[in-house]
Amino acid sequence: MASTALGRRRHEVPSALRGGRRRANLRALLYLSPWLVGFSVFFLYPLLSTVYFSFQRYDLFTLEPVGLLNYRYFLRDEAAWTAIRNTLWLVVVMVPLRVLFGLGVAQLITKIKAGAGVFRTIFYLPSLVPLVAGTLGFVYLLNPGTGPVQAILGAVGIDSPDWFGDPAWSKWGLTMLGLWSVGDLMVIFMAALLDVPKQLYEAAALDGANAWRQFVHITLPVIRPVLMFATVTGVIQTLQYFTQAMVAARVASGATDSAGSVFVPGYPDQSTLTFPEWLFHQGFRDFAMGYACVLALVLFAVSMVFTLILLRQFRGFAEEEA
Amino acid sequence: MKRLLAISAAAGLALLTACTAGTENSAPSIAPSATSHDPVTIEFWHGFSADNELKAFDDTLAGFKQKFPWITVKATKAVQDDQILQSVRGGNPPDVALSFTTDSVAQFCKAGIFQDLNPYLKASNIDPAALFPKVIAEYTQYQGKRCVMPMLADAYGLYYNKKLMKGNEPPKTLSELADLTKKLTVKDAQGNIKVAGFVPTSQMYENAPIHTGVMVGAKWTNPDGTSAIGSDPQWKTLMTWQKDLVDWFGYDKLEKFRKSFGDEWSADNPFNKGKVAMAIDGEWRNAMLASDAPDVDYGTAPMPVADDQAQRYGAGFITGTIIGIPRGAKHPEAAWELVKYLTTDTGALVGLANAIRNVPSTLPALQSPDLKKDANFQTFLDIFANPNSTTQPAHINAVFNQQTLQEAQIQWESGRAKDLDALLADVDKKINDKLKLTAGG
């Protein structure tokens, strides 16, 4: 009993000190309040709403609780799974190709002696072109009926594929569009490449290492954090891939906004249907916002996984640096 | 930190409650001051954007101002359905809104996006059954709730270029259409199409299944809203006919040809340019041909029908422009006066129909001696009056249903799907699953 009383006394804090700590906490809260408000309004509230609506039949105007109906529909919605497969295809094919191409272009431009500025500008400019305009341009160039690419190939007796009208080629068409606008990655890689200490190359050259071994054993390890950053942010961006797929499909299909002219998302044969595009269609075209919320939660979960990988990798690099 | 999260969660839930409370549906009411003549300005959003359409519309609104001098109409042009929805959602809708498509009527009525007009009709002693052709009633109401009114209608038929037809009469059956297409098509030595008698793919401008289904009298849905596509043999008849003709052209050649066309709504439309001899289109093409390609010598006829349905020849697809009072309109009584004028006034409807060559949507306007008629336009008036002409009845998933069938049609005609029965069964499954999701059917 005595020891308990003693213990209680030991943990007692003078009231003046308690008041000071409370004031310090309040001050901290005050400083944090802009973030707290922003976090609550722009993240927490939408997230909670999304979870709530995912259990409702919600047509943007009326609500009706439906339990797990939206989740059950997701499991048998073939279009959603096609969209997942397409998005993963773009992640697995387009992201690495963009990174490789961006790195290759950056490597070339940092090596050439004359005209580097001109080439840098030429390769960077496409990344400044608005997405819709760039996609329209690509669909026009590759149009099998009237496009200049077909005109050139046709002159030498080659039939161009129907890039955005054939499901076997459509995702490759989008990948080419992604490679064309690789300027954003190129700039990051150029900065990283120029940051590699020159003396490392000089020492390696003295040891007889050729260009390839220098690239593998010096360049790649030094720029590894930048490569990882480009890959993971590329993956997250591709998980949200929307505009180019939507515009290419709409223009290639020839669908207009007139009555009776129905746009088939993911044209042709859902081959360009991405997950965010299907989400948009469910919520804002089919008025199935409750189901769209389920899709949004799936996308959120997958994006979180990639974000965690990114954070973990960066922590690993930081520890290595230390 | 835990406490902070708890506070944030509580705030979020409070906001959530506040937001969802706004989704309650409210019944429309007619204020007792409906006969008040106090000056009032109403907002009117519509989708017209072409110069000739805007002029015709301004003239019609001037006629309204003469009849209702205390009501000033502030019109906004080129508005799409998305904008109307957002304005209702945001609580700041126009007083009157017009839509070019009937696809969303079920949604508009079910969710209360547009107000139920039955009380207004009753108060104004208007009997829609006596005023509008029967087919129109199907696309302006959903489950007994009429939330929009028809303002002009569209009918679909066959346009043919007389020079390219080389003296042949327009086809009346699908077999005749196929034979004539083969006869009139011109290809070069490599098999590239230079002139097509008819482009049979569902991807051609107005060849969407919603329009072509009428040629075989195909059904979209059963009375309970579930899909009738897989069980109605007429869809199979239509798609088999289309595939045979597509194969005759070669799908790749036909797609290459189709993708060389200009914009449907521009002067580069292939019918204007003499690249296709026959095309399915709406009555409005008459006005466009007059302005964009006055030298094209053309004729119009009803769409051909299935070989075993000769008695249905003369029918076509019918749809139209719709207009209503969005939920939350600030001046619903004045708004109703405008809606009533634009949808029931014979003079207004005939004037608009003459100016933009649409089919008037009331029985008195159709019979008006002031309605300009020539042989090519008369075809569409006859299609509109034909008892076998059909529309797509309002359905909660109208867009999804069309999209799903069209997707299947593209797979089929391209040869990427081999089993038509399985393909149509899959269409049924998708449509029925979606119905359960959105309507609990």
From TrEMBL, chain A:
Residues 84-310 form the ABC transmembrane type-1 domain. Keywords: Cell membrane, Membrane, Transmembrane, Transmembrane helix, Transport. InterPro entries: ABC_transporter_permease, MetI-like, MetI-like_sf. The chain crosses the membrane at residues 28-48, 88-110, 122-142, 172-194, 215-236, 288-311. Gene3D superfamilies: MetI-like. Coiled coil: none annotated. The keyword Repressor does not apply. It is a multi-pass membrane protein. PROSITE patterns: ABC_TM1. The keyword Transport applies. It is found in: Cell membrane. Belongs to the binding-protein-dependent transport system permease family. This is Sugar ABC transporter permease. It comes from Microbispora corallina.
From TrEMBL, chain B:
This is ABC transporter substrate-binding protein. The keyword Signal applies. Pfam families: SBP_bac_1. Belongs to the bacterial solute-binding protein 1 family. Residues 1-21 form the signal peptide. InterPro entries: SBP. It comes from Microbispora corallina. It comes from the Bacteria. PANTHER family: MALTOSE-BINDING PERIPLASMIC PROTEIN, MALTOSE_MALTODEXTRIN-BINDING PERIPLASMIC PROTEIN. The keyword Nucleus does not apply. Keywords: Signal, Transport.
